[in-house]
Amino acid sequence: MLSRLGIALVLPPPTSRKTVELGVRHAPEFACFPLKLNLGNFLEARELGADTILMAGGIGPCRFGYYAEVQREILADLHVPMEMVVLEPPAGDWGAFKAGVRSLIGGRSWWDVLKAIRFAWYKARAIDAVEAEVLYLRPRLFEPQRVEELCREALGRLDASGSRQELDHAVGEFRRTTRGLPRRSGALLRVGLVGEIFTVLEPYANYDIERHLGLLGVEVTRGIFLSEWINEHLFGGLLRVHGLEHVEELAAPYLNAFVGGHGRETVAATVHFARQHYDGVVQVAPFTCMPEIVAHSVLPAVARDQEIPTLSFYLDEQSGIAGIVTRLEAFVDLMTARRSRRGKQEAAGRKRL
Amino acid sequence: MELYLGIDVGSVSTNLVALDPEGEPYLAPLYLRTQGQPIAAIQQGLSLISDQLTGRDRVCGVGTTGSARQLAAVLVGADVVKNEISAHAVAALRMLPEARTVIEIGGQDSKIIILKDGIVVDFAMNTVCAAGTGSFLDQQAFRLNLSIDDFGTMAGQAKAPVRIAGRCTVFAESDMIHKQQMGHTLPDIIAGLCEALVRNYLNNVGKGKEIAAPVVFQGGVAANQGMRTAFARALSTEIAVPRWFNVMGAYGAALLAREKFQELSGTKFRGWQVSTVSFLPRSFECKACPNGCEVIEIRQGQEILARWGDRCGRWSIAEAETGQNSAAPARG
Known about the structure:
The complex is a heterodimer. Chain A has helices spanning 17-26, 33-47, 67-77, 94-105, 110-137, 144-160, 164-179, 197-201, 209-215, 226-233, 247-251, 263-275, 290-306, 321-352, and strands at 52-56, 83-87, 189-195, 218-222, 280-286, 310-315. By secondary structure, chain A is an alpha/beta fold. Chain A folds into 3 domains: 3-107, no CATH class; 109-186; 187-353, 3-Layer(aba) Sandwich (Rossmann fold). The longest helix of chain A has 32 residues, at 321-352. The radius of gyration of chain A is 21 Å and the shape is globular. Chain B has 3 domains: 2-88 and 249-275, Nucleotidyltransferase, domain 5, CATH 3.30.420; 97-241, Nucleotidyltransferase, domain 5 (2-Layer Sandwich), CATH 3.30.420; 278-332, no CATH class. Chain B is built from 9 helices and 13 strands. Chain A binds chain B through residues 13-14, 16-19, 142-143, 145, 148, 184, 186, 208, 215-217, 287, 297, 300, 303, 309, 314, 318, 322-323, 325-327, 329-330, 332-334, 336-338, 341, and chain B through 67, 82-86, 109, 117, 119-123, 125, 127-128, 208-209, 289-292, 311, 313, 322-326, 328-329, 331.
């Protein structure tokens, strides 16, 4: 979107251990993991020559709404001369949103902006389509690494695309090659991944939870995708997107208030996955994340009523991969046992009839 | 005799159990200290077992568990590699089929397992805190110049257990020192510490879980009389401690190996000589991307047995099976 507007864009390198080290060194210890990672991303972008940061804002009790301010102060303390443009959800104040965009685009017309936004939106949807395909295929393939390689290539091509045709072509090409990969047969366990969006979407922040589950033979469905978030937070929900509808009704009666972040969505998505007869739900959140702690505290009631096992992880730079893998493996065992028990009960029920 | 071997390599202890075809321990289970050298501990355990066997005994299946389950599987050749939670649940159910709750406290982690009708329905492990696990009790016994066995019995002599701050291990120790200096008796302080650790366990590991009887208490810490009493009092129920409480992980792994044998013929066991060969572990940092993953490689002579530790799969070879259907393909 930005390159379409003639703004030179510097993408920070993918989040890595170096990002974490940079972020953790300069961020307050009690800030949550996403703040630390973002700060690391900014500093790495600076090394590549970026001078302005485009950062999303937020509303509600989640601390995210204040991040841009905190990060601006930290960068100033570090004498890193970067300007920060904050895009807030325009729900309340269109004026501020306009001013933010205006400072970025300079003299460009609003029509160009609209076109660029439409393209960016299309791109986000294309990325989501590729990632969803990986989640679907990974547990089904004999060589799951192949689809990961193809995905990395496809994302690179999407990134370089400048038109909708190119995007369509890249997605189509990815689908064609992955279709030919040899698959295993048999029923799969299905798990819904819910929680705070950054932790759900950023593999570095969730310690590759989707990949670990996929390699254990589990199909993972995300409760939230990037394009849904953009729609909800930056477009004020103007677009119709296929996503979780009726969040409020689904979350009731367990959680009746907006608790900030994605707390209510976590509860709603858990109910949703239970109704779709998923085998389990995994919740991920940054350590100390308030909205997710609230959601976590009602999950035992949801799990009991809706008969779905749940497993929660709070993650930050101190987490250890061994403990995460151990729990995921045990969760897979638990779901497998439940499913075979259920199968036996159904078979016994049919016999009695 | 046909034997099934279970090996549990944990932070503090390395345990080995050899089962007969009925699933009963054939030899006395081994409880060895890992002392930061898992390879040496595994080899020592294997040689101690093979010394007691005759030519007619043969191994039909091997199961590994514990934090070094992958390593153990590569060295010994395992048919089943199982996480500690499932292995402990299997063993607890064998000892007490109607069990509803398993409390397991080991060297550095503690877990709770909720069972219903003989299957695991929920579980939790300690996450950000290891207060109250075996390592801490060891350390406190050492500081008080007691053997860990006396530590537990002494708690039984308490008249009025004192209240100790148990959230953080280091602060618990400060609080104990303070209570000693105030003049409280040692048994009262030790019993108070056990109660604090039980409170911490129930609040951190057991939070949100419905703890129903019968309750099974296992893991090395279950040897501690003070901890048993404190759990019984806090939960107002009797606590069952299985006969082989400190090797339940290895026991469970052996049971799983025995179960698997019925479906599969042949074992991957590499033979008793693995106790004498020299394995060369080495680690290096991968330079391919800024992640700088620490890759670990295990060699036997010139042959690379396994490599793991990378996030992207570039180096991983011959990764042992981690789950029921995850035969991670070997790449050359």
